[in-house]
Design goal:
Elements lengths: L1 E3 L1 H15 L3 E5 L15 H5 L4 E3 L4 H13 L3 E5 L10 H7 L3 H4 L9 E6 L14 H5 L5 E3 L4 H13 L4 E6 L8 E3 L12 E4 L4 E5 L3 H14 L4 E5 L2 E3 L3 H11 L2 E8 L5 H12 L8 E5 L10 H4 L3 H12 L2
Parallel strand pairs: 2-3, 2-4, 4-5, 5-7, 6-7, 10-11, 10-13, 13-14
Antiparallel strand pairs: 1-8, 6-12, 9-11
Helix pairs in contact: 1-7, 3-4, 8-12, 9-10
Protein name: Alpha-ketoacid dehydrogenase subunit beta
Keywords: Oxidoreductase, Thiamine pyrophosphate
Cofactor: thiamine diphosphate
């Protein structure tokens, strides 16, 4: 196995599928010669040629339209939206067309399209680059939405996304791109979409989370352990569809839960997770299910984002409210 950062694992996943399937195409703004803003596609055009990995005009709506056409003619497009804050420019292609393609044709035409895009705070990006808009696409039937938290998961999940016959929105948190390394197998392996992962076992409280907040939650669990609490951390990995079975199994074991997301409380998918828990496991609960989320305001400018974003201290404070209820 090789030690990889998340960005390296993502590149390796695309390289693997470009080798394995000649119908896989990678395209977007600056993904060719430059290798993308974060170098996620670095070297791929040189290796596979301009017909397989290529730049597009600076027009997200055009990228989406191209993906629709290619998917109807047997290709497996991997389209990059340079930052997920730009999803509004292509939302009709994604939610209005790709999400409905199989349904409206009675399964005659699928939409094997992967929509890759970076998002997330803590890296001082300009306005409209860091917004957590995953709830926008997770609420659209017909789309799968994946958010990995580790290099190992990122590669396996991205390969699964590219192989999937349905449209998959694959969101990559910018802060995790180069924050740590992990052993990642060489060659092809897959992680099932729609399957959560228990990143840490515990018996007193379940923290259900995804993306960069997985790591903040693990830090919180370590602090709480020193105070005598055993905390389980469930990484959703796929936020649509949710792995209800793993969520409920964890809650029925610990009898207490909090849901942690980086998005504003009114956004993201935390409210949906809380609803699923209360509908299915309310008799197992010994305390209310609380949420940790950003304030319900517009994402601040870079100077204020660290004070605005949820962090380990917010998680610990909320966890103690539930643990001592």
């Amino acid at each position: 196995m090789a030690q990889m950062t998340m960005i390296q694992a993502i590149t390796d996943a695309m390289r693997t599928e470009l080798k394995n399937d000649e119908n896989v195409l990678v395209f977007g703004e600056d993904v060719g010669v430059n290798g993308g803003v974060f170098r996620a596609t670095e070297g791929l055009q040189k290796e596979f040629g301009e017909d397989r990995v290529f730049d597009t005009p600076l027009a997200e709506s055009g990228i989406g339209g191209l993906a629709i056409g290619l998917s109807l003619t047997g290709f497996r497009p991997v389209m990059e939206i340079q930052f997920f804050g730009f999803i509004f420019e292509v939302i009709d292609s994604v939610s209005g067309q790709l999400a409905r393609q199989s349904f409206r044709t009675g399964g005659r035409f699928n939409a094997p399209v992967t929509i890759r895009s970076p998002f997330g705070g803590g890296v001082a990006t300009p306005e409209m680059h860091a917004d957590s808009l995953e709830g926008l696409v997770a609420s659209q039937p017909g789309l799968k939405v994946v958010i990995p938290s580790t290099p190992y998961d990122a590669k396996g999940l991205l390969i699964s996304a590219i192989k999937d016959d349905n449209p998959v929105v694959f969101l990559e948190h910018m802060k995790l791109y180069r924050s740590f390394r992990q052993e990642v197998p060489e060659g092809e392996y897959t992680i099932p979409l729609g399957k959560a992962d228990v990143k840490r076992e515990g018996k007193d409280l379940s923290i259900i989370t995804y993306g960069a907040m997985v790591h903040e939650s693990l830090k919180a669990a370590e602090v709480l352990e020193k105070e005598g609490y055993s905390v389980e951390v469930v990484d959703l990995r796929t936020i649509q569809p949710l792995d209800i079975e793993t969520i409920i199994a964890s809650v029925e074991k610990t009898n207490r839960a909090i849901v942690v997301q980086e998005a504003q409380k009114q956004a993201g998918i935390a409210a949906n997770v809380v609803s699923e828990i209360t509908e299915r496991a309310i008799l197992s609960l010994e305390a209310p299910v609380l949420r940790v989320a950003a304030p319900d305001t517009i994402y601040p400018f870079a100077q204020g984002e660290n004070a605005w974003l949820p962090d380990v201290n917010d998680i610990i404070e909320t966890a103690k409210k539930v643990l001592t209820f």
